[in-house]
């Protein structure tokens, strides 16, 4: 016999099994019953069971320290301190390197006011694990809280012999300062800086910040001579090989607080002469601030400018095509330099022409020319040199490959400011002849409009439209110009010529502008004709709705029948449309119209035309042709389409017959129900 290996009809997943287990709470154990201990025998029995449980857990795995700690804390909760000590000692025999174990042991002794035991434990801990700083902190804190200052100092001294980290020294110093022992704190600082052992100088923390902290400690306690001596020792200690700007900044600020301004200048100059420029930024910044407060303004400004100029020179020397560095350099030079120097830097900057003739490489470079021309015009007041700059730039640009319209327009605007209109027109005309661009045409037309030269504007628009006949915005602006000038026939002819173009970038905007133009002129018949011509090109639902709204707002007596007729035509035309959402949009607009202006009969009719929204499923395919599952989507069934399809009508009648059959079978199987219902 062969077993049936086909999959079962109902598949059970692992997720379903877990969900059912969660819902039925199969894994939840009932809580243990609460026990009430009433006499000593029950208490002793309870203790015996618990101790046996703890001992079994320890026996299973002696290295799990949490079991030992729980055991000891349980004994401590019963006030069995001696037993808890025994447990901790056994645990330390297992793992004496466990920091938590030592801490819990000592905290138990302190909590139960066993001070000598706690001292013994801390002493054993710091002897066994001297590099664990937490033991030292806890030990010294306990002694200080007990008022044993000498004992706490003795612990600190033992700690310092191990040469700990920086925070430990600061803790010792702060401890002495809390008890006003300034001399002791000074001696600790000395050891903190230089630790002497066996008559040999051993460096413990030779960092600059430690010397600065020592000096600030002396300054805080008004020992200014000692503070100056510390700074001098630090400068001598580090020498010229390991100079650090932070030390000299702190030294200078100390002398500044003491009003020793000459000493401050000597310190800053000494450091600036010996520390490399790239490592002395903070030093120079503080020197500048000091000179601004107490020195000569002109001198410090010269220092700043010369330093920044040196930096920019290094940058542009490293990369001559770094135009951002040139911009910063020129901004610095323009702020406080004579015109000849500025022109020299500009000439050096514009000499670095991009090596590749691609526009993206020239976008930053062209602003060097623009800034140069603006400087000559606005700052130097040299109009002749400004014209030469613009002309040199325009000659340099490869106009056959690309151009910059802003450069032509800026040159033309400059000539207008110089009241030289022919040169401005010549420049813009040359630009349109060499490298026509939309921006150039727009700028030239805007100039002539401001000058009220409408004939020139017409000629420019004609040239513009010959260059870019697909630009709908240009057609619209041209027609609007003729409308403003009152030449309606020319405007209409422009619109007609525009819509006859084979290629347009935004035809919908152009048609809307033409229709709005005819509506503004109150030419309703021409507007209707325009809508009909547009509908011959596209059957978009928005065009039909716009036509209906136009008929409604036309203000004539037959506006409602005309509007309803438009909706009727649109509904018939949209029946063959594949996008059912557009047809639904049309019917929604029609219903809104009937709700406001229609009768009950027309409202009932439009309600019958509204579709039924149903949910369907369709199969999806991946890019490689494999099945990607199913997706749900909404479809619309229109009553008009259903009436024209006999198969759908037959299917509906079959569903109705099946429903009647099911009702008759149910009545035959339960006749008593019918009798009861008839009696009631």
From TrEMBL:
Record-level GO cellular component terms: nuclear speck; post-mRNA release spliceosomal complex; precatalytic spliceosome; Prp19 complex; U2-type catalytic step 2 spliceosome
Keyword Phosphoprotein: yes
Positions of transmembrane segments: none
Region described as Disordered: spans on this chain: 660-680
Main location (coarse class): nucleus
Coiled coil, from the record: none
Residues in Pre-mRNA-splicing factor Syf1/CRNKL1-like C-terminal HAT-repeats domain copies: 66-355
Biological process according to GO: spliceosomal complex assembly
Subcellular location: Nucleus speckle
Record-given protein name: Crooked neck-like protein 1
Origin species: Hippolais icterina (icterine warbler)
Lineage of producing organism: Eukaryota, Metazoa, Chordata, Craniata, Vertebrata
Gene name of the record: Crnkl1
